[in-house]
Amino acid sequence: MRYDYVVIGAGVSGITTALILAKSGFDVALVEKSPRIAPLIRGFSRHGVYFDTGFHYTGSFGDGEILDLFFRYLGLDDQLEKTPYDPQGFDLIRNLEAGFEFWFPYGYHRIRQRLHATFPAEKDAVDTYLQAVEATYHAFPYISLNTDAFSVAMPSGIHGPSLQQFLDRLTDNRLLKWVLSIHCLLHGVPPEEIPFTNHACIVGPYFESVHGIQGGGGSLVRALDGQLAKLGVAVYCGTGVREIRFAADRTLTGVYLEEGKNLDCRGCVSTVHPRELLNLVPESLFRPVYRKRLERLEETSSAHILYARCDSSLDRMARANVLISPHLDLTGLGADQALQHRPVYLTAARSKKARSFKAGLIAICPASIAQMSRWAHSVNGKRPADYVIFKENMGTQLGRYIETACPEVAGKIDWADCATPLTLRDFSHSPFGSLYGVKHKVGQHNPLPLTKAPGLFLAGQAIVAPGILGAVVSAFLVCGIIIGHCRLLKALRKYR
Amino acid sequence: MTDAEIIALINISLTEEFELKMEDLKPEALLFDDLELDSLDIVDMVVVLESAFQFKIREEESIRQIRTLGDIHNFVINKKNALLN
Ligand SMILES: Cc1cc2nc3c(=O)[nH]c(=O)nc-3n(C[C@H](O)[C@H](O)[C@H](O)COP(=O)(O)OP(=O)(O)OC[C@H]3O[C@@H](n4cnc5c(N)ncnc54)[C@H](O)[C@@H]3O)c2cc1C
Q: Across the interface, which of B18, B38, B59 has its CB nearest the CB of A287?
């Protein structure tokens, strides 16, 4: 079989890449190691409740905003029903140390007003911060479609300032700094490490607007699947790529699948974790310096995730999530601390039946995969008995912690299942089971979409940013390199 | 570190990390034309120099003017001296 391009990994970035290339007239194959596409975001059901996994809400998806435009370009819009979060408070953020809570609104004017009202002495700091976030986010290639195609370049946050440094220059108010840093939970890099530019590009969309999708990640996957079929992308699932093959002159010739099949092609876009990429290419393909660079990329933390049933509805959480942090200090984001010292992210799950009042709760709590080293060699479905006991204990402890930190749910939840860092690792085939892949961090050079191997390109959360939007933008960026930014930006502008 | 030691360390790092041949590492060698590096290699060059000499390189003007291997030698020597002063 011969294709123009083979895309490796059918997460959001890989599927989007395949769709753009197919729309541009190429013969495309998409290869996914899991039995079905998009294992990270497809969610699952237990006891009549649908639980989302890698997708709960997204920014910039309001009518006419950039993700909405991307989805219209991809032909997804008429299959997706947006569910707006509450503009007056899409996240309830709660600090236990300070006994403080704040409904974080969206829309820059609302955020400004609310912060001014809460921190009257800090109006300048608030304004400077919000202006910088907005300007930085909108300068990112493909977020602004007015970018001159010849100067598409990713802003480099490598030299800092970090978010922490940026905020330290603005104010001494610890509580305000906590409020402006808590959304580090959306990218998994603590304030002292995340470059301000990257933080701005990840929270900027949520400051614009916040939406979920009716039916959650599962609906998004069905819509993506439908478009893959419609555009004639050949999808190979349940068989990973084992090797990317090159001729003696370093020309890319194709990929070799785990099931023993060859797919010939002239180009390849890899969206897998950079560490996994190294397993797929000949040792001599990259210079030692580049191999080491990929090997040494630091990882975001993993998590324990509790999926609970809930017999009464969690009213206020229908259109808002809850972010709880025991401390003002977010250094390290807490993955290595005792459970009750870690932040936790709560979001509601919905019943599969439209009229049922039954619902559920999902609690995500940072955790390090190193704590799981005893069972590192086990795989999903075949874990030893002591792991099962550990997991049950973890579920119980996490349940108790949540009931204390969030009394609103106390007595209402009954846990249904629990995921550990090993679950995350095995379900999404990411080597360390981290929430958001490799960090974007001051001082760390993440890989770019272009590689030194002709025909081999990279996309995915490691390249641009984590999140659905980061994954989608990484796909547009890499396809812009392949088919020409001019052509792609022009095609996108038609959807404005 | 003497200037000669700095130059030797740069050249050894380039043979190990970039797989360049020692005999090609003449100070007058042009990075792009003679050593066949390209713009994608700049980041890796920065990574190699930062880890060999334990300093951080910003996108300073002087790095953009680098054309030859000798320019790299001088850049690092100047940077080291500046850090000492
Ligand atoms: C618990 C959790 C909650 C989240 N919540 C949100 C949210 O609310 N909003 C949001 O925007 N983002 C959220 N995210 C982040 C978001 O889900 C990710 O950033 C995004 O989905 C990453 O997409 P990707 O395509 O880059 O990576 P992936 O989805 O990881 O895609 C890589 C794919 O490659 C496959 N693969 C690996 N090796 C091979 C191989 N050898 N051959 C073939 N295939 C291979 C993997 O199975 C995988 O499907 C969340 C993440 C987690 C973990």
A: B18
Q: Which amino acid is at A381?
A: G
Number of structural domains (chain B) is: 1
Rounded-to-integer distance, Cα B60 and Cα B38, Å: 19
CATH number, domain at B17? Answer: 1.10.1200.10
Q: Among B38, B44, B59, whose Cβ lies nearest the Cβ of A289?
A: B44
Name which residue sits closest to atom 29 of ligand 1, judged by CA.
A11
CB contact under 8 A, B40 and A450: yes
**Is B44–A288 a contact, with Cβ atoms under 8 angstroms apart?**
no
Count of domains forming chain A: 1
pLDDT of B61 > 80? The answer is no
Atom of ligand 1 at shortest range from CA of A436: 19
Alpha-carbon span A147 to A141, nearest angstrom: 6
- Residue A471 is predicted with a pLDDT of 98
Atom of ligand 1 nearest to the CA of A40: 29
- Chain B interface mutation, best of A156, A287, A296, A452, highest count of B Cβ atoms under 10 Å: A287
Return the residue of B nearest to A159 by Cα.
B58
Q: Considering only CA atoms, which of A419, A312, A444, A296 is closest in space to residue A369? A: A419
Residue A396 maps to a domain: no
Show the domain range for B66.
3-84
If one residue of A272, A275, A323, A479 were mutated to test the ligand 1 pocket, choosing by the most ligand atoms within 8 A of its CB, it would be A272
pTM given for the model: 0.96
Question: Under a CB-based contact definition with an 8 Å cutoff, are residues A204 and A155 in contact?
Answer: no
Establish if A144 belongs to a structural domain.
no
Contact B40 A289 (CB under 8 A): no
Write out pLDDT tens, residues A97-126: 999 999 999 999 999 999 999 999 999 999
Q: What range defines the domain where residue A258 resides? A: 2-40+60-79+217-297+439-493
pLDDT digits (tens, 9 = 90+) for A232-288: 999 999 999 999 999 999 999 999 999 999 999 999 999 999 999 999 999 999 999
Q: What is the pLDDT of residues A403-449, one digit of tens each?
A: 999 998 998 888 788 999 999 999 999 999 999 999 999 999 999 99
Angle at the Cα of A464 (from A463 to A466), degrees rounded to 5? 100
In the structure encoding, which two tokens stand for residue A65, read together? 């905003």
Neighbours of A299 (CB within 10 A): 20
Ligand 1: residues with CB < 6 A are: A 8-14, 31-34, 39-41, 53-58, 240-241, 271-272, 276, 364, 428-430, 435-436, 460-461, 466-468, 471
The helix (run of H) or strand (run of E) holding residue A418 is: strand A413-419
Sign of CA dihedral B66, B68, B69, B75: negative
- Is 70 exceeded by the pLDDT of residue A358? no
Ligand 1 pocket test: pick from A183, A429, A473 the residue with the most ligand atoms within 8 Å of its Cβ: A429
* Complex-level ipTM: 0.90
Does B34 reach chain A within 8 Å, measured CB to CB? no
Query: What is the pLDDT averaged over residues A300-316?
Result: 87
- pLDDT at residue number B70: 96
CB-based burial label for A75 (10 Å; 0-12, 13-18, 19+):
middle
Residue B29 has pLDDT above 60, yes or no: yes
Residue A98 inside a domain? The answer is no
CATH number where A471 lies: 3.50.50.60
For residue range A145-157, what is the model confidence (pLDDT) as tens digits? 887 766 677 777 8
